[in-house]
Each structure stands twice: as C-alpha cells, then as structure tokens.
Amino acid sequence: MSVPIRVGIVGLSAAGWASSALAPSILSVPKYKLTALSTSNASSASATAQAYTAQVGNPVNAHHGPTTSIAADPDVDLIVVSVRAKGHLSAVLPAIEAGKDIFVEWPVGANLEETKEIARRAREKGVRAAVGLQGRHSAVIRKAKELIESGKIGKVLSTTSINLVPEEFGIWGPVVNERSKFAAEVNSGSTLLDIPVGHHLDILTFVIGSYFSSISTTSAILFPKATVIDAAGAPIAGEDQLTVTAPDHYAYTGVLKSGAVASVVWRAGLKSTPGRRQFLWEIDGEEGSIKLESDEPLAAFINFKEPTLWLNGEKVEVDGAENPTIGNLRAEWEEFAKGEQGNYATLEDAVRNRTVLDAIRRSGEEGKRIVLE
C-alpha cells in the first residue's frame, strides 16, 4: 500500500469552507491523511486539532499564527490554504519555501500580481501545486466537454451565458452578511469578479478548450449602498449604509483564440423572484448546440451545483452528479494524488484566468476593448 499524503490545512476551524468542504473531501480519499492544521489563534487551533484527532484516529498537530510553523512541521507533505484572498500570499510563501506541495483556494492571491508571484516562487522551488477550481471535475461539465470533443455539435462558433447571485445569498447586493462585507471592497480579492466570475471563466474555457484573445466589458455598481445584517438576518446598528466599491453587474464579450465568440452576463443582488433566470449557458456549434441550465438558487456556482445538460434539445442523463460540493473536490484530490499524471487546475491555469479577469476589470473601468497576448 502506498504511503498516504500527509495534509496540513491552514484555515481549518470549527466553521467555514475548510471545515464544511475541504476537510470532508480530503478525509473521503484514503490516499490522504490529515496530520496538522493552523488557525489564527492558539485556543481555536488546539480545540479544532483535538476534535479532528478524535475523528480521524491519528494525532493532528495544532499550529497558529504565521504559517511558518505549519510549514516547518515534519509530519506534513501537502499544505492546503483556505483563508481570505488577501491572506493567500503570506500564507503560501512559507509553505513553498519549506518545499511543501500546496493547494491554494481560488483566486490564489488578491490580484494578478500576487497570483504570478505565487506561481513564480512555486516554479523556482519545484513544488507541485493545485488550485481550488473544482468545477472542472463536475460530472456534468466533464460530459459537456466530452460531447464537444467528440464532435457532436461540430466546431464551436459561439457561447452565451447568463448568471445570477441572488440577494438572499447576502453578498454583492443591497443586503450583505456581516461575515462577507469585506467582499464589497474592490481590492479585497473576493469580489463578484474574483470569485464566481472567475470560477465560471475557468469552466467555460476548460469546456471549450480555448482562452480569450480579446475582451470588452460593461460593469456597474447598481447597489452602491448595502445594509449589513447579522446571522439572524437583522440589520446591524450603525452599519446600514456600507459603501460598496466593487461592481455587482458585469457583461463581457470576447473572442476566443479558437475564433468562437463569447458573451457572458453576471448579475448580483437581484431577488430570486419567480421566473428570474438563475443560470443558463448555451454553446452553439456548426452542427448543433449544448445547453446547461438550472433555476435552483445559486445555480451559477457550477463548482458546487450541477445543472441540467441538454444536447440538441434532448436531456442528457449524467452519472455521478450527486453531492457535487464534496464530489468535485474529491475528484480533484484523486487527480492530485496521481502526481504529474494527474489532471487538475494548476498555478499556470490560475495565472491565465487571472489575466483574463484583469482584462475584464480594466475594460470595464476604461471603457475599451483589451487585447490579450
């Protein structure tokens, strides 16, 4: 039997994405073993480590503060970073310098420059790295890619997508959860553009198999003020007029290097009223079309939601589409465990995606078409 990959998770506490998705998906793959975690303070690290030690049946080392501590842990082979985007760079670099393989949640830094820096340092140190772009491992997305590559719709000529992040989600709209208000700041690295638009961009280019050569964008802040609410949904006194600096609407068009034309619209902050489209994505080829759609709330987050797939008007049944939040991540861990033969999103993919997102941003701000190399 092969030796398990020993994992340390930065940002693993009692609640949050690391505890609800990353840790459960890792623990579901026998090729991995949770051996360490790191949080911002000693008490939370100790309590969480004790809980996981009891759960997994082996010691889980507790670290806190700067990631130099967990990076130096001899019981760790792979460090998983799941903190806010602005903390990615400082969390990842000690792991790279220690020669540890890394997994970094999307968007890999607060901006394009940080993404490039992380990729450069990892390349220089020769560490292997994966990125949390698990939408590539969706059963429906894999099937759509397979249909295109098999020639079922002929050469792809165009693609159109419309997406919604509804008001009730509590981010990027007129009502914002207290825990998410940082995402309303344009330089947070956690904006509508950074997170959901970025995830969708990766899936779009993965399925079609081509990156953008030019981008034209219209962006807008339709909700310049937001009411901050607590966990119970009640407005927080003194925070009912949060100033929003990050756009909540994007409409971008572009030409892919393959020659196909793409048109993508993202809206945030609108209520999920009856009939309002949550997610629709059409891919038109010379010989037919593919459609992915869903009106389930947050359906635009394909990285953890599975839409319905249609080929030339007929529904395509897809196996393995249950529990995509854990399933997609599990598939990524399985691929990473294969080593260099694995198929997963890399830091190079992150840089390419970030380059396109930066072009989307600049085009919206400057009102001009951006040509990419």
TrEMBL record:
<dbReference type="InterPro" id="IPR055080">
    <property type="entry name" value="Gal80p-like_C"/>
</dbReference>
<dbReference type="Pfam" id="PF22685">
    <property type="entry name" value="Gal80p_C-like"/>
</dbReference>
<feature type="domain" description="Gfo/Idh/MocA-like oxidoreductase N-terminal">
    <location>
        <begin position="5"/>
        <end position="132"/>
    </location>
</feature>
<dbReference type="InterPro" id="IPR036291">
    <property type="entry name" value="NAD(P)-bd_dom_sf"/>
</dbReference>
<dbReference type="InterPro" id="IPR000683">
    <property type="entry name" value="Gfo/Idh/MocA-like_OxRdtase_N"/>
</dbReference>
<dbReference type="Pfam" id="PF01408">
    <property type="entry name" value="GFO_IDH_MocA"/>
</dbReference>
<protein>
    <recommendedName>
        <fullName>Oxidoreductase</fullName>
    </recommendedName>
</protein>
<feature type="domain" description="Gal80p-like C-terminal">
    <location>
        <begin position="140"/>
        <end position="294"/>
    </location>
</feature>
<dbReference type="GO" id="GO:0000166">
    <property type="term" value="F:nucleotide binding"/>
</dbReference>
<dbReference type="InterPro" id="IPR051317">
    <property type="entry name" value="Gfo/Idh/MocA_oxidoreduct"/>
</dbReference>
